[in-house]
Design a protein that fits this description.
This protein is α/β, with parallel strands linked by helices and 335 residues long. It is built from eleven helices and twelve strands.
């Protein structure tokens, strides 16, 4: 339950108006009283609603989109889908980037508890050991929808793609193209999306009796230089893979760089499939076979769910889970 000014006033035996003025740093209140109020408010984790006093019906006309990055084409397209709904509803979209930093994500969501936005769309960062900050936001009855990267144990609406099946299809595609030693490039294993894709890859490998050894799955980091070294080591190895499934766009394109530096020919020496929404995938040399996520539709659907909640009294949200399938586009990197 959120802490109120009235509770602080009661606990400190002060008038509500005195506490209110102290928190606004009014000259009418003595420094000693201000200090008492500030210290006690901090102890109780009190967060003032900066907008409640000036907004009717607690509406700001803003929704927040919290993302790990925007360099990935998926998120850029998802924002377009979100904007298509928000503009129609007369809302502004405020984009916040966590840069895969869980502390920044916590700070951003904490700020939302003050009433800065009416609702939140979030794709979580990869470094989360705990999601208490998301629980705290939901406890404030601020509507929240996950998209793409979700927290499966938190009860909220979610919009995703068919990650398990898509990774299975990508792996099966490489097997059907003659690959025997297929590597999977994994993002953080703290992300449900990565785990689903890895399980899809492993299921296809087992289905076709292809061995999975300790070098089959490469656990990558949130650092391009480090990932280059990891992928380079994999491609220099004695049992170099002849097929690669990249679970993220940046990992997939990095394989191109490594192969070029090592004079490995795509697709002759190694075939590549990657999860990517790059519009220039067909222009790469060779063109990239992709699992293309319906990024625009995912963003649009997530925004629609959020506004459905905002248009209900008290922002009551139905906990829906919607899956929009991805599509495999075969190009030269696997031919």
């Amino acid at each position: 339950m959120s802490v109120t000014i009235r509770q602080i006033a009661t606990d400190l035996a002060l008038a509500v108006s005195t506490v209110s003025k102290a928190l606004r740093d009014s000259h009418e209140i003595s420094p000693e009283t201000k200090r008492r109020v500030f210290d006690y408010a901090k102890k109780l984790d009190y967060i003032p609603n900066l907008y409640a006093s000036c907004l009717k019906n607690r509406k700001t006309g803003n929704i927040a989109v919290v993302l790990p990055e925007i360099a990935d084409s998926f998120f850029s397209l998802a924002i377009d889908g979100i904007e298509s709904v928000a503009q129609h509803k007369g809302y502004h979209v405020m984009v916040y980037l966590t840069h895969e930093d869980i502390r920044k994500e916590e700070s951003i969501l904490r700020d939302f508890r003050s009433g800065r936005v009416d609702g939140v769309l979030i794709s979580v960062s990869c470094g989360a050991d705990s999601n208490s900050h998301i629980h705290d936001l939901c406890s404030q009855h601020i509507p929240l929808v996950f998209f793409d990267r979700v927290c499966e144990h938190i009860q909220a609406s979610k919009v995703v793609t068919n990650d398990f099946q898509s990774a299975y299809n990508a792996t099966e595609h490489l097997i059907n193209r003659g690959c025997n030693r297929i590597a999977f490039l994994a993002m953080s294993n703290k992300l449900a999306i990565t785990n689903h894709r890895q399980k899809g890859y492993e299921e296809a490998m087992c289905r076709y009796d292809h061995p999975i050894d300790k070098n089959s799955v490469l656990n990558c980091k949130n650092d391009e230089t480090e990932n280059y070294s990891l992928i380079e080591g994999l491609m220099r190895g004695k049992d170099r893979p002849d097929g690669v499934v990249g679970s993220g766009e940046k990992l997939t394109t990095l394989v191109y760089t490594v192969c070029n530096d090592l004079n490995l020919r795509i697709p002759h020496d190694v075939k590549i499939v990657g999860f990517s929404s790059l519009e220039i995938a067909s222009l790469l040399n060779p063109s990239l076979t992709t699992i293309t996520q319906p990024a625009f539709d995912i963003g649009k659907t997530a925004a629609t769910l959020l506004f459905n909640a905002l248009e209900k009294k008290k922002g009551v949200m139905q906990q829906e889970s919607i899956t929009i399938p991805s599509v495999l586009f075969e190009r030269q990197s696997t031919r």
